[in-house]
Amino acid sequence: MYTLENVTKTYRQKERTIHALKDVSLSIPTGQLVAIQGPTGGGKSTLLQMLGALDRPTSGRIALGEADLSGMPDTKLGRIRATEIGFVFQGFNLIPTLTAQENVETAIEPLGVAADERRRRATEALASVGLGDRAHHVPSELSGGQQQRVAIARALVKEPDVLLADEPTGNLDEQTRDEIMDLLEGLHRDRGLTLVIVTHDSAVARRAERRLHLTHGTVTERA
Amino acid sequence: MFFTYLRRELAGRRRQTAIVAVGMALAIALVMIVNAVSGGVRDAQAAVLESVYGVGTDLTVSQAPTAPGEGEGPSGGVRFEFGQDDGATDDDGTTALSNSRLTAGPGSSTFDASTLDAVLEVDGVAAASATLSLTNVTFDGELPQRPTDQAAGDQAASGDAGAPAPGEGGAGGGFGGGNFDVTSVTVTGVDPAAEAIGPLSAVELADGRGLDSGDAGEYVVVLDAEYATTEGVAVGDAIELGGTEFEVVGTVTSTSADAATASNAYIPLDVAQALSGMDGQVSDISVQAASASDIPAVKADLEEALPDQTVSTQEDLAASVSGSLGSASSLISSLGLWLSIAVLAAAFLIAILFTIQGVTRRTREFGTLKAIGWSDRRIVGQVAGESLVQGLIGGAAGLALGFIGIAIINAISPSLATTSSPLAAGAEGAGGPGGFGGGGPFAAAQETTEVVLNAPVTLGVVALAVGLAVVGGLLAGAIGGWRASRLRPAEALRSVA
Ligand SMILES: Nc1ncnc2c1ncn2[C@@H]1O[C@H](COP(=O)(O)OP(=O)(O)O)[C@@H](O)[C@H]1O
Ligand SMILES: [Mg+2]
Fold it and tell me: Which of B98, B102, B109, B192 is the one with CA 20 to 30 A from B129?
């Protein structure tokens, strides 16, 4: 699925240069569940940005399938994000003024799907995460776990090849965390979804097939 | 999705929507009101000028009055001459006097009537008509037995812009135990054959008939209906002007309902010249250009042909309309304009700042939308759409507020006093300050007209309001959208802090 060759990312902050990723090479096969761990500032979110086509590496090559993400213009990266990549965030990142149903619909808006088809697919996605009865609630009327389910439905509704999650359970209590992990694991298992989860939580990481450790911009494999 | 999202945002962020809309509404209402009022002031000025110069008049030829004290201008003062036989001395030693003189109107100089021929020869002049502006001053009173001749002389007309009665000044005064009245009446000598141009082209017949070509040389007079009513004279009666009896053949009112006519009385030009001792003299020529686009060229040609006279267009003349109408006009054009620009700028600034603030607050939201594949264009469109609708809500509220404001102004319909110096464009008032011995100063004849201010609501005013709302909304939307387009999609991953 992913191939990274000597990927480097540096940020310039005034006189300082921050090496967020240093010469990272790895590949992630299709359908793998990968957990990325490491200390804060280690470069986890930066790596996820590279995988998610949100930003380009300073040097090195990163490919999603056949597509070379490192040399793509912004509009093409946007297209890849719209069609192939689903995101789940620590803070859920739902649009506060939109209902659950409408939040899910925003994900297929760029695909140019007709309105009734869009509605049908969003309803279906909400039902698949167990929130069929909460479609017309706004985020502030939902619990954290419910909001994260809506976000997962939003990530799934476009039927992506890969799902990227940055600390998806970081804002949730233990029981809810386990429910969300059950849901993600099920998706991985049932749909063969490639799943990359950044987490601080060893309980979460333990459920992954593969664990990567990221410190000072350098990746190491963990058994 | 576009409209759902837009509706949800505006409804969900009511406070911001309301602040931006209220700012826009106030600004737009103010612009509408200022615009409508200045339209009303322009209309009022046009009405005043029309009553003075006539409907078809494009240009006016006059002569600037000679400065006071310089030369023996006919407008210098009114001299009454009382001989030994003029008064009847009573037993108690007072002398009853009465005298009526017709002299050149205040603030105007006369020039030779042959100028009219020169005017008619200029290319592009369609019609022209000469008038002679006069004032009839009547002295009526009794004086104690004293040397009177020098006391009564050398009085000068005092210009008093606040004179309440239109075109008519009257003052009484005591003089060493004596009693007298001085009344002045404005009289305009007009070419009785000229109907299409000149002061009488802007009047409507109220009673009797107007002047016609057969009236040349006749002692007939047409009175301003308002003046006739105050004086208690009607068609068929006789009045005295310059010591001569005139037959009242008609009364006229102004075509513009709000303004009085230019003069109290209109008499044939030749009669006016003869009675005032100004044979072959006129004070003013009304000129009609063949076409409106010719006016500047005709003005230039007239100025070249008549180096001694002043040539004014209606626009130049508008500047001579003074009094509270003049102040209203300058107030509107300066303060009103700047105030509405300032408030409009403030409203636009508020809209822009709130939009920018909104975009900053929604950094993660827009970053998330970009992360899930929304294009920059789609997000810019969303932000611009929100601002545009906010602007339009403000525009609609402003339109309503503006209409209410204009309706209030029209309900109050403030009346403005206007003073114009007729038939002597550019001349500011007339004469110098004058006193009459120990008596009170008397107001000289000057055109003081009451005009009711109306603020018309035109399609232009409405279009202006809607246009400003759209411009304000799009401006804020464009700036906010530009900010949103520069956000990186990676902002979605920023920790919740
Ligand atoms: N946009 C940015 N500009 C400057 N420095 C950044 C930016 N994003 C991340 N960094 C820096 O890069 C390093 C890695 O950050 P990040 O990938 O967010 O780490 P993690 O997610 O593991 O906590 C940190 O030192 C962080 O301060
Ligand atoms: Mg991070």
Answer: B102
The answer, yes or no, to whether any atom of ligand 1 lies below 6 A from the CB of A44, is yes
Structural domain boundaries enclosing A98: 2-222
Residues B145 and B285 grouped into a single domain? yes
Same domain for B203 and B235: yes
Same domain flag for B409 and B274: no
Which amino acid, residue B450? E
Which value does ipTM take for this structure?
0.95
Taking the C-alpha atoms of residue A47 and residue A61, their distance in angstroms, rounded to an integer, is 13
Give the confidence band of B422 by pLDDT, cuts at 50, 70, 90. Answer: very low
Same domain? For B287 and B163 the reply is yes
Tell me the per-residue pLDDT of A40-55, one tens digit each, with 9 for 90 and over: 999 999 999 999 999 9
Candidate from A52, A91, A97 with C-beta closest to B9: A97
What is the tally of structural domains in chain A? Answer: 1
Evaluate whether residue B149 is within a structural domain. yes
Determine, for residues B8 and A97 on separate chains, whether the beta-carbon distance falls below 8 Å: yes
Per-residue pLDDT tens digits for B204-226 = 888 888 888 888 888 999 998 88
User: Whole-model pTM?
Assistant: 0.65
The 10s digit of each residue's pLDDT in B344-385 is 888 889 889 989 999 999 999 999 999 999 999 999 999 999
Cβ–Cβ under 8 Å, residues B28 and B395: yes
Strand pairing class (B415-420; B447-452): antiparallel
Q: Does the pLDDT of residue A8 top 80, yes or no?
A: yes
The number of distinct structural domains making up chain B is: 2
- Residue A5: CB atoms within 10 A of its CB come to 15
- The amino acid at residue B445 is A
